[in-house]
Amino acid sequence: MTSQFQSDPAVLVLEDGTRYHGRAYGARGTTLGEVVFATGMTGYQETLTDPSYAGQIVLQTAPHIGNTGVNDEDPESRRIWVAGYIVRDPSRVVSNWRADESLDAALERDGIVGISGIDTRAVTRRIRSEGSMRGAVFSGEAAALSEDEQLRLVREAPEMAGQNLSGAVSVEAAEVTPATAERIGSLAVLDLGVKQATVDNLAARGFDVHVMPQTSTIDEILAIDPVAVFYSNGPGDPAASDAHVELLRSVLDHRLPFFGICFGNQLLGRALGFGTYKLPFGHRGINQPVRDKATGRVEITAHNHGFAVDAPTDGVIDSPHGYGRVEVSHVGLNDDCVEGLRALDIPAFSVQYHPEAAAGPHDANYLFDRFRDLVVATQETQKNA
């Protein structure tokens, strides 16, 4: 791996005109996207391969990145999805027996333009005070563009609000992972950016996991005779995914058990009749505190979202779209954000965070058990009806 002190110059430009000069990291060229920060101290390979980060230039707040390299066992999907990567101090050597290559080489292989050697604390503080904003990393020949031209390119880039990115990350044809525990039945997973750890956790609960394209119809879902439906995490603005909301309403109308995470939580909220909104700078990292309102227990959870559901966090409310009573089940302790929904009259619930949590923590892994139990209970009710 080329030392950061020997690599080409690079510059990070934010849409407010702020500039940060550093060194090229990964591929050379230009990349545009929404600049966000992730607070996890570990698990950078899982972060990079999380499809929810499509369209985003990710800044790692942990200063030292790359020391464990990357391997062929830990990716959460088929490629690196971040639009760009920002680190302070990339490791000069790889020091892990599981590593197959350096992080720098992996970024270059997948064409990910990055920057190193900048004050990531300063960038994080700016995003926290001003909100997430568009930005770009310029390296190689692009680093020599005029400041005016670089800023023009940034300001002409699309904003995250209004973007539907599911089509860019979803599978094109269904993929099936057989159950690895006592079989319950087939589970339809709408792939909006699903992670491999999620598929593995669902298979371990007895589901034959059918990962289906985001273009799937209700007829295609019913054709696999599912015992339940699952909506995955994913990138983009939930307000730009009306087709997925309408599909979910068909699922709820069929009284199929439903579980959604992250983007799936936002889409359940919209299907029930609530709105969504863009957070100032979002939640990204593996150290976000969430309170389970039913138990009072505080869980440390893995997040990656820039949008949230707009619903009252206290009491039971009626679904504006006629799906009965609904309550907010989990609340974020940093900003009182809605972190989970539970329908009381239909078999449906969701959380805003990632219970599979590769590479940790695992406080919320029980939610997969809760989903399995909901499906089994629904099956028993139907048998006795």
Automatic annotation (TrEMBL):
E.C. number(s) listed in UniProt: 6.3.5.5
Organism: Microbacterium thalassium
Known function: Small subunit of the glutamine-dependent carbamoyl phosphate synthetase (CPSase). CPSase catalyzes the formation of carbamoyl phosphate from the ammonia moiety of glutamine, carbonate, and phosphate donated by ATP, constituting the first step of 2 biosynthetic pathways, one leading to arginine and/or urea and the other to pyrimidine nucleotides. The small subunit (glutamine amidotransferase) binds and cleaves glutamine to supply the large subunit with the substrate ammonia.
Name of this chain's protein: Carbamoyl phosphate synthase small chain
Region of interest called CPSase, as start-end residue ranges on this chain: 1-183
Protein residues bound to L-glutamine: S52, G234, G236, F263, Q266, N304, G306, F307
Pfam family, one: CPSase_sm_chain
Domain Carbamoyl-phosphate synthase small subunit N-terminal, first and last residues per copy: 8-138
SUPFAM superfamilies assigned to the protein according to its UniProt record, in alphabetical order: Carbamoyl phosphate synthetase, small subunit N-terminal domain, Class I glutamine amidotransferase-like
